[in-house]
């Protein structure tokens, strides 16, 4: 059909629908985070999450997926500090580390980032530790493996500065940082032993410098 002369054809504006979908997704993630940490993974149903977030169950599945995918999304957003998963190399602190020429300062930047990340990630670690579901263990194992891969990149970056202690190779640096930057280690000192998060961050940077840097 030809347009009526003088009539302007309207373009469909999907921005409102996208904003509503994003608002629903944020509400779903927040509801899931609250329920998982309060009740545990097994005791939280997808219906519970839908009810808490104020959306239909079908909307939960469409926005995030099934329960394992939802838990993974919570972990990813805790790692990135945003409401979306962000690849490690695209995160601001990683780019700052790569741009910094001094090895000690690189480690300070990373320690600060680890403190901020684990303050978000620690409650989810407690969920994972009490969950018996294989899919939850797989999520946590995958995160640990990714950390190990990323630590080799950091270790090589430190070695390239020429400021690493003699006799320490990339593998040892990567393993030391991987072990001490884990959410489990953070929880031992901050949650179990009551260290303030600021003390943990300062101690971590200082310990890495003492162990690794000339």
TrEMBL record:
Record's keyword annotation contains DNA repair: no
Residue ranges annotated for the HTH tetR-type domain, each copy included: 22-82
Organism of derivation: Microbispora corallina
Entry keyword Oxidoreductase: no
Domain of life: Bacteria
PROSITE patterns: HTH_TETR_2
Protein name in the entry: TetR family transcriptional regulator
Annotation: DNA-binding region: 45-64
Record keywords: DNA-binding
Gene3D superfamilies: Homeodomain-like, Tetracycline Repressor, domain 2
A Pfam short name: TetR_N
């Amino acid at each position: 059909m030809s347009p009526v002369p003088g009539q302007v054809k309207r373009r469909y504006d999907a921005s409102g629908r996208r904003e509503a979908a994003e608002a629903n997704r944020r509400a779903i993630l927040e509801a899931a985070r609250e329920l998982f940490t309060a009740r545990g993974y097994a005791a939280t149903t997808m219906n519970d999450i839908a009810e808490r977030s104020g959306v239909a169950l079908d909307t939960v599945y469409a926005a995030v997926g099934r329960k394992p995918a939802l838990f993974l999304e919570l972990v990813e957003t805790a790692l990135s500090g945003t409401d979306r998963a962000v690849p490690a190399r695209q995160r601001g602190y990683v780019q700052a580390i790569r741009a910094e020429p001094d090895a000690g300062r690189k480690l300070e930047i990373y320690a600060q980032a680890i403190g901020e990340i684990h303050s978000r990630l620690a409650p989810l670690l407690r969920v994972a530790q009490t969950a018996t579901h294989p899919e939850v263990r797989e999520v946590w194992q995958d995160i640990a493996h990714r950390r190990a891969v990323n630590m080799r990149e950091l270790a090589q970056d430190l070695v390239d500065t020429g400021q690493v202690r003699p006799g320490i190779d990339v593998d040892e640096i990567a393993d030391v940082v991987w072990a001490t930057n884990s959410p489990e280690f953070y929880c031992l000192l901050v949650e179990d032993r009551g260290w303030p998060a600021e003390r943990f961050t300062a101690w971590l940077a200082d310990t890495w410098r003492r162990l690794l840097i000339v």
